Amino acid sequence: MIKKCIIPAAGIGSRMLPMTKIIPKEVFPVVDHPVIYYGVNEIKNSGIDEIIFITSPGKESILNFFDYSHLEEKYGDKLKHLSSMIKIISVRQIFPKGLGDAINYGKGIVNENYFAVLLPDDLIFSKKPVLLQMIEAFKERPGIYISLMEVEEKDVSSYGIVKGEFIDERVFKIEDLIEKPEPEEAPSKLAIIGRYILPREIFNKIDNLEAGKKGEIQLTDAIKKISTKIPVYGYVFEGERFDTGNKAGFVKANIRLALEREDTRDEVLKFIKSIS
């Protein structure tokens, strides 16, 4: 039912400067794979067979990782060459103007009624891929889906926060979406995280949006406009999320994965104990 996924990857990565002056944040290594690998792997394991990358000038290395080279012949099993398992399309966004604008670059490619969106900064370790969790909920109750997680009250001003009520253990019927509210104004502590299932009609809503703060086209504004026609649900996913778009989150993700892997666990654990 969901066969295409858009990955917006055109941002400049200002939170990770100065490294992002020369290396896109999407190819920063988490142990021995770039951040983008984990998102693409999640998409593939969710049964989606086509990815639309929205990139910008200077981000060619994102696509280079998925190109076939002589290294695959020697280290194929280790590299897990995903591009042989999934179709990858690239569209260049010359002037980044917000998440809504980035997603809108996929409108000439997405023909299905619904499609997925994955923000690669949000690296989530889970037994079942988060997108697959959402797709299974979507099959039972069709509509727009947004992944959610509970955050601390002091952190709500850093996220989009939802208003509504639970209608199932993990499904939240959304009445409103508020961008980065102050803690005393937040209707809940459920924050929007980078996974979506959206209808193709969202493109028409984005086309007619006016730019908001900083001249950006906000996806949440488009979702609000279409919510009178299509129900909007939040899905509180099962998994451990790391924001690799900031320094602390990126370091934590590396430690978390290193402690899980047999080839790095003992040395890293020994080092952590020595400094703590």
Explain what the structure shows:
- The protein has 276 residues and is an alpha/beta fold.
- The chain has one domain (4-275): Spore Coat Polysaccharide Biosynthesis Protein SpsA, Chain A (Alpha-Beta Complex).
- It contains nine helices and 13 strands.
- It has helices at 35-45, 60-65, 70-79, 99-104, 130-140, 202-207, 219-226, 247-260, 265-275, and strands at 4-8, 29-30, 33-34, 50-55, 87-92, 114-118, 122-125, 144-150, 160-166, 171-179, 190-199, 232-236, 240-243.
- The strands form three sheets. A nine-stranded mixed β-sheet has the order 5-4-1-6-11-8-12-10-9. A two-stranded antiparallel ribbon has the order 2-3.
- α8 crosses α9.
- The longest helix is centred in the C-terminal third of the chain and has 14 residues, at 247-260.
- It is globular, with a radius of gyration of 19 Å.
- The model has no long low-confidence stretch (mean pLDDT 90).
